């Protein structure tokens, strides 16, 4: 069994890596977008983002002042040791990195000051895929999270209904989620499953092709349509409104078509660790897909 002390140390490292660096696929997408921009304002915004990323990495400080709330995805052991280690790691990381204490009571708004609270940090458990324990952190800021959407479409709405909902959501969001954004879409299941799938979709590499040809085609269509809205970097106009669109789906009730949308800002922070039985720990900002 993995000790809570090891989990704590791994969580501190994960939060430090995720908060101060950007996955390479996101960085490449940002760099490539400058060449496709015709708007000088858009190019200036994109360059400012890239300069910010470089400074954060060199100085080992958070990329964004909103260091988000700590969301975890775990494959493997779900014992109390894991929960204890994750909570201890978040408390330490908040003090040591430091992270902004964003977690508050939803009604009283009282802030405990350590990013801990009822059901927070939240842990999603996923099926184990090997002889290792895997933990991923996704710090999620409020600017993008507040633009999330869920709608129970009629089955007859079909693909056109999905595209219309995503376009409406992103256009209404405008510059609030700090574009260029990544769009995670969950289709099917039930209302709660769809929202979980939308969040999980944000963990997928921008450079990974969807294995479902229908979803792959839909991702490309939506991506093209969103970049034609003219919202642009930071909502100031341009061709780069989104860096990527990722869809995950689950089969659903014959009378339902749940669709959830979760937006991620350009600071698409995440980090993954694999812990093996001999205590070896491997880290990656891109995951181990």
The count of DSSP E runs of length 2 or more, i.e. the number of strands, is 9
Number of separate helices: 8
Multimeric state: single chain
Largest sheet report = 5 strands, mixed
Briefly say what this structure is.
This protein has helices at about 5-20, 25-35, 40-60, 80-95, 140-145, 160-175, 190-200, 215-225, and strands at about 70-75, 120-125, 130-140, 150-155, 180-190, 240-250, 255-265, 270-275, 280-285.
Structure in words:
The chain has 289 residues and is an alpha+beta fold. The protein has two domains: 4-21 and 63-141 and 268-284; 143-264, 60s Ribosomal Protein L30, Chain: A (2-Layer Sandwich). The chain is 39% helix and 21% strand. The strands form two sheets. A five-stranded mixed β-sheet has the order 2-1-3-8-9. Helix 4 links the parallel strand 1 and strand 2. Helix 1 packs across helix 4, helix 2 packs antiparallel against helix 3 and helix 6 (158-173) packs parallel to helix 8. The longest helix is centred in the first third of the chain and has 20 residues, at 40-59. The mean pLDDT is 96.
């Amino acid at each position: 069994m993995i000790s809570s002390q090891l989990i704590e140390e791994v969580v501190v490292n994960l939060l430090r890596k995720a908060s101060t660096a950007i996955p390479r696929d996101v960085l490449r997408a940002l760099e490539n977008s400058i060449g496709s921009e015709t708007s000088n304002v858009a190019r200036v915004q994109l360059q400012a983002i890239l300069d910010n990323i470089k400074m954060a990495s060199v100085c080992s400080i958070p990329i964004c002042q909103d260091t988000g709330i700590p969301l975890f995805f775990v494959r493997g052991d779900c014992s109390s040791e894991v929960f204890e280690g994750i909570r201890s790691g978040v408390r330490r990381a908040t003090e040591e990195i430091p992270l902004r204490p964003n977690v508050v009571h939803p009604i009283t708004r009282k802030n405990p000051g350590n990013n801990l609270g009822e059901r927070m940090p939240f842990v999603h458990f996923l099926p184990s895929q090997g002889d290792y324990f895997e933990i991923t952190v996704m710090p999620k800021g409020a600017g993008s999270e507040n633009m999330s959407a869920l709608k129970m479409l009629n089955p007859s709405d079909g693909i056109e209904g999905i595209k219309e909902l995503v376009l409406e959501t992103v256009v209404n969001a405008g510059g609030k989620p700090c574009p260029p954004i990544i769009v995670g879409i969950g289709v099917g299941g039930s209302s709660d499953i769809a929202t979980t799938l939308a969040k999980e979709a944000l963990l997928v590499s921008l450079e990974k092709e969807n294995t479902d040809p229908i979803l792959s085609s839909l991702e490309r269509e939506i991506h093209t349509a969103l970049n034609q809205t003219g919202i642009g970097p930071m909502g100031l106009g341009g061709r780069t409104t989104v860096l990527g669109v990722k869809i995950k789906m689950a089969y659903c009730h014959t009378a339902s078509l749940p669709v959830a949308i979760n937006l991620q800002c350009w600071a698409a922070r995440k980090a993954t660790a694999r812990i093996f039985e001999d205590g070896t720990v491997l880290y990656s900002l891109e995951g181990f897909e």
